[in-house]
Design goal:
alpha+beta; Aminopeptidase; seven-stranded mixed sheet; 3 helices; binds coenzyme A
Length: about 140
């Protein structure tokens, strides 16, 4: 399977919306909002299979806002490629929040060198669940 990364555009929003809807563990954004930030898409054999969105907070400080890979394309290195590209494009500290219950994503981030940096109780309004704050320095 060939994986290609490129910046996301308005034309990618329907595919991103579909991936987000199939990924209830991810934050559920109004997808056009992603165009305001650094949006990357991963193409697998020409099809949008995943996306990642980040924003710069300050010099050397960025935040991963959301990340999801279509369930049909998981565990093939697509998420890793997206995060590696984001960390390369955002040198310094990269922060993120992940649901406490999202053990798969927490393991995924740990496998990429992220560390637990704190927690935010009752962070997610939909479930009242807490968030784990993680970061990595590159
Ligand atoms: C988290 C997510 C983006 C990972 O994407 P992916 O393309 O499947 O991940 P990769 O194939 O690059 O995984 C790289 C490594 O991370 C770890 N990993 C990935 N998913 C994992 C899981 N569910 N459980 C345990 N470890 C996992 C493994 O070490 C994996 O390497 P391996 O497959 O050789 O064992 C994907 O599962 C997803 O979209 N989840 C739903 C949305 C979500 O939770 N987003 C995060 C919001 S903060």
């Amino acid at each position: 399977m060939s994986v290609e990364l490129r910046p996301g555009s308005r034309d990618d929003l329907p595919a991103i919306a579909e991936i987000q809807a199939a990924s209830p563990e991810a934050s559920q954004w109004d997808v056009p909002e992603y165009l305001k930030y650094d949006l990357l898409v991963a193409l697998c054999d020409g099809r949008v299979a995943g996306f990642a969105v980040a924003r710069r907070l300050a010099d050397g400080e960025s935040e991963l806002l959301n990340l999801a890979v279509h369930p049909a394309f998981r565990r093939r290195g697509v998420g890793r490629r997206l995060v590696e590209a984001l960390t390369a494009g955002h040198p310094g500290m990269l922060w993120l929040e992940v649901r406490e219950s999202n053990l798969g994503a927490r393991k995924f981030y740990k496998s990429l060198g992220f560390c637990d940096a704190g927690c935010r109780p009752c962070y997610y309004p939909d479930s009242g669940e807490g968030a784990i704050v993680m970061n990595v320095h590159s």
